[in-house]
Specification:
Layout (H helix, E strand, L loop, with lengths): L2 E5 L5 E6 H9 L3 E13 L4 E10 L15 H7 L13 E4 L14 E4 L1 H7 L4 H4 L12 H8 L2 H4 L4 H4 L4
Parallel strand pairs: 1-4
Antiparallel strand pairs: 1-2, 3-4, 5-6
Length: 168
């Protein structure tokens, strides 16, 4: 099922919802279609509408302020787009830049996605000690970045540039 991006009335990304939920929100006049899937339409007895890709809520929803997304193993893999920080291949595990054995913790800036082979080869050493430089530096994603990165790349393609530049 396609995911539809939901924007607040202020155009701030809030979440993704299923296509069914997005259609219900639009039909109940709680949201408007901001961007549609090209060439796709939903047709029923009394309905003929474009398939929504991005919808915007008509009323502003107050969201508690969060400075950054909560850390999680899945979040690290999504942030790094399932690419190993050491070799660039498909990542299936999370590696600690400063190993837990040396006092490193589960934090955004201390964890990177890694393939199992590189994770095993690095072991309980820092990248410098193992002679394995990072291809990219870890960063702390904002909640909006985390949500956009969690969308499949095919779903992110075609989103407005002003929206996807935040998560690049």
């Amino acid at each position: 099922m396609r995911d539809t991006l939901v924007l607040n009335a202020s155009f701030e990304p809030l979440s993704t919802v299923t296509l069914n939920r997005a259609v219900v929100l639009v039909l109940q006049d709680k949201a408007v279609v901001e961007q549609e899937h090209p060439g796709l339409r939903l047709r029923a007895a009394a309905v003929d509408m474009p398939v929504p890709r991005v919808i915007r809520l008509c009323r502003y929803v107050r969201v508690p302020f969060r400075r950054h997304a909560p850390w999680s193993r899945r979040g690290v893999l999504v942030r790094d787009q399932h690419r190993c920080a050491y070799c660039g291949s498909r990542a299936t595990t999370v590696d600690h830049v400063v190993p837990r054995a040396q006092g490193g913790g589960d934090e955004w800036l201390n964890t990177v996605a890694s393939c199992a082979a590189d994770n095993h080869r690095k072991a309980d050493r820092t990248p410098e000690q193992a002679g394995m430089p990072l291809l990219h530096q870890p960063f702390v994603p904002t909640p909006a970045d985390a949500m956009l990165l969690a969308m499949k790349s095919a779903e992110r393609d075609g989103l407005p540039d002003w929206l996807t530049d935040q998560a690049a």
